[in-house]
What does this fold into?
Amino acid sequence: MAGHSKWNNIKHRKQLVDSKRSKVFHKLTKELQNAAKIGTNVKTNAVLRTALAKAKTLNMPKDIIVKILKNAENDCNKKETYFWLAGCFAKVVFLFFKITGERNINNINEFKKHLQKTEIEFLPTTSSLHLFTEIFHVFLINISQLETEKIMELFILDDLEFVDETKELTLFFSDHEEIKKFQLYAQDHKMDIQNIQQTYLPKIRINLTTELKENFNFLCNKILNTTNCLLIADNLVK
It folds into this structure.
């Protein structure tokens, strides 16, 4: 009977340990899934890096982590993917093209081919950024008025749009560090980030002659109608 009692004690302790472990892993899974919604690239997603470090510290099995990230990546691939290219028109108007698809040499060359006989000159994207303010749009759902007011108190925002009827909130950030802090805050407070997009707003606008402006508008319409370009951000006076 002593052996039987000993086995029951071991079994009971094991069940308690397994139960606690299961709860911890369930919570970690949720954290990883929410973090991966922002993006599965750990180099650009600070929230995911933090969640992965926590999972490794608590000895979450590697195969479970890989499976979670793989599922998240598949979900991301179903959503809109895009990249940006920079250029200029008439050597004075700078623009950014938002192009659907993955950023790879084939997609870039395919897009540039459409603009070979135009007045568009392509530029390095990074070095063109100083003429624009990079704005991140963060879309959230199921957000209350009280939560919105708290966010306004805690973070430096360029703007926000809140729809009380649908509980939808859009935040606009230009500070990279501020958006990283918000991503961590959103994870801790279980906020539902649906999507993060970026666009570019000009710091200074340039004027053109009427003829050049007409040529520019005609060219932009042609690009939007005949290529996989979704949006053109420019610094032309409207």
About this structure: Helices lie at 2-38, 46-57, 62-78, 105-114, 145-154, 176-188, 210-226.
